[in-house]
Design goal:
alpha/beta, Ribosomal Protein L25, Chain P, 2 domains, seven-stranded parallel β-sheet, globular
Length: 251
Amino acid sequence: MQRYFIPAGQWSERTVRITGSDARHLSAVLRARPGERIIAADGLGRAAVAVITRVSPDEVVAGLEQPIAESGEPAVRVTVAQGLPKGDKMETVIRKGTEVGAVRFIPFVSRRTVVQLDERKEEKRLERWTRIAKEAAEQAHRGIVPEVAPVTGWRQLLDSAGRYAAAFICYEKEEALQFRRHLAALKSRAPAPDILLIVGPEGGFAEEEALEAEAAGCLPVSLGRRVLRTETAALVALSCILYEFGEIGGS
């Protein structure tokens, strides 16, 4: 069944109302008819099977039939801080990272960021990233829609590192600190920790940035001997964390 995230304000005791692009998708693309079933979710952990009762291009109404116990959320909560890359690579990180299990994305600007920021386009770009996260969460049957934060600065990002149980910075020059060993140490904590994962842009991090990150409490870790593209590094590191915590491949 197709899943749709519906704001809590559009839920009543017995029905949900689907509006906007989701209503147009149901009516015009899927040609939904009364009697068909969908999964309605509020993005906060509540979900239910709903039976469509009325369809129009502007609004689809469905009756709530049966609650569903959400099971698609990992216990460990990983925020992916991604150095702003060129082209549509940020969209790839958000889409695939949502599928894998990230709970939040923070695009940031650092010394080697080459993307030219345009404040006039920032709002539309953030709207697009948020929409991509929602669509990916629906496809992956997530219980929540991961948040996408506005583009932030390097210093602001480091100032937030102390809010997490652990913060890792993927640094290609790191050779001594093993990612797996640090993750194994975190596994003993209860409840499962919140983790910040920092990945640089295409040019990686300057040595000064790696030192600044360490001073802020971040652990520099290596993802192996192979050089990874920035969007690949984010997904590999995220997968490593979820695997180590038993969220991928079985516990």
